[in-house]
Write a structure and sequence with these properties.
Ald_DH_C; alpha/beta; LUC3-like
Length: about 475
């Protein structure tokens, strides 16, 4: 672990599984309560100097981006081994991690002058102190950068705790950045439950930023409430895609497919259900099923693999449960519908048809390589069904007429509406969830300001 810029070892460790084999391949440090205190204290001690020099913070983030790129292959290998994604996808994640740091470094914390005559009134945005960043296992490095980069640029210091399923790449990131960030500015710890709750509850932490499940997010909010800590929660979604009747399927089928199946479907912002005009239902199902059957699934370390395994044993079990429930209820697997032979957490890319709302795999976030395709009779119905959920992260509308699609997309109750695409938010673009999909904003200026407290400076001149 990295605490106060130094290497910290633990007495206890826990196993990290390679999802391509299902077997433990490495041990990660299990942070003790005393070491957690040390990490938070190191961040608190570094805060007074770090908060004072914006130019130094900007330069440090740029240097950190360059160092990540220099260390890319080490990070890529660890990421594939612990998370399962193909090496090409892991390289993309490392690239986006560096891009996120550079994009954040280009932002400015504004100072707004409300009045400047016999009195000067300014609105300032000042750092909070120690930020606890708790990240998930699906894109651990991107999520880490989305949290610590704006927190650091705003003048805060950070304690980063990755998921216990994928701790190694984040721990390595902490090591890589030790000599480009001052000691204590970014501390990286790892451990099993209840380490995340202990970090969120720590009295020296002033803000908690968390990405994960709704259930855990509610616990994080409850843990932060007694101390009135500020929180940002990104809690996933059950993103709906709506195809309009004029969609050019030949042009859009590939994008449609990967909008749902990128990262083995393990992206909060991936499409989780697709509504299709009844007259084009079979055509769309067949096109998606053809692509599902053509995908090369395997160990992400091997050349030519397009989709790796599910990242964790619990998620593998959940996907199997949801698909089995749908098939038992009368759904048909147009492609896939089963686990693949051999070791590891491999599940065939699955297109489900002959099902409606009310089936668990439609109503819940499956977070895996499964797409239920549901027919609809008119657009009003499709919009109502897309919005009929507790989730509200993203949604998309697909049409040969982008403006027609945009008018429909504007009515989706979610943080981001896409037209003729569905995917990861670009660095620097605000990202947020409605309803149970989260609280607060990540990325962009709004995300940067979420790591600050607003303060009014009121100066009376003269007598």
């Amino acid at each position: 672990m990295t605490v106060g810029g130094k290497d910290v070892h633990t007495v206890d460790t826990f196993g990290v599984h390679n999802p391509a084999t299902g077997r433990v391949f490495a041990q990660a440090p299990d942070c003790s309560p005393a070491q957690l205190d040390d990490a938070v204290q190191a961040a608190a001690d570094a805060f007074p100097l770090w908060r004072d020099d914006m130019d130094a913070r900007r330069s440090a983030l740029l240097a950190a981006a360059a160092r990540i790129e220099e260390s890319a292959e080490e990070l890529v290998t660890l990421l594939t081994l612990e998370q399962g994604k193909p090496l090409a996808d892991a390289r993309f994640e490392v690239m986006v991690t560096a891009m996120t740091l550079r994009g954040t470094a280009a932002l400015d914390v504004p100072r707004e002058v409300i009045r400047d005559d016999e009195e000067r009134i300014e609105v300032l945005h000042q750092p909070m102190g120690v930020v606890a960043a708790i990240t998930p296992w699906n894109v651990p490095l991107i999520q880490a950068a989305m949290k610590f980069a704006p927190a650091l640029l705003a003048g805060n210091t950070v304690v980063l705790k990755p998921s216990p399923f994928t701790p190694l790449s984040s721990l390595a990131l902490g090591v890589v950045l030790r000599d480009v960030l001052p000691p204590g500015v970014l501390n990286v710890i790892s451990g099993r439950d209840p380490l995340g709750a202990q970090l969120a509850e720590h009295p020296l932490v002033r803000k908690v930023t968390f990405t994960g499940s709704v259930a855990t997010g509610k616990h994080v909010a409850a843990s932060a409430a007694p101390d009135l800590k500020r929180i940002t929660l990104e809690l996933g979604g059950n993103d709906a895609g709506i195809l309009l009747d004029d969609v050019d399927l030949d042009a859009m089928a590939e994008k449609l497919f990967w909008g749902a199946f990128v990262n083995c479907g393990q992206i909060c912002a991936a499409m989780k259900r697709l509504y299709v005009p009844r007259a084009r239902y079979t055509e769309v199902v067949d096109a998606l099923a053809d692509r599902a059957r053509s995908v090369q699934v395997g160990d992400g370390m091997l050349p030519g693999v397009q989709m790796g395994p599910l990242a964790t044993a619990p998620q593998f079990a959940r996907v199997q449960e949801l698909v089995s429930d749908a098939l038992a209820g009368g759904a048909t697997a147009a492609a896939g519908g089963r686990r693949l032979d051999g070791d590891g957490y491999f599940f065939a890319p699955t297109i489900l048809r002959d099902l409606e709302d009310g089936v668990r795999v439609v109503d819940e976030e499956q977070f895996g390589p499964v797409l239920p395709v549901i027919p609809y009779d008119d657009v009003e119905e499709a919009v109502a069904r897309a919005n009929g959920t507790h989730f509200g992260l993203d949604g998309s509308v697909w049409s040969a007429d982008p403006e027609r699609a945009a008018a429909v997309a504007a009515r989706l109750e979610c943080g981001t509406s896409w037209v003729n695409t569905h995917g990861m938010p670009a660095p620097g673009v605000s990202f947020s969830g409605h309803k149970w999909s989260g609280l607060g904003v990540a990325n962009g200026l709004a995300g940067l300001l979420s790591y600050t407290e607003t303060k009014v400076l009121h100066v009376v001149r003269g007598r």
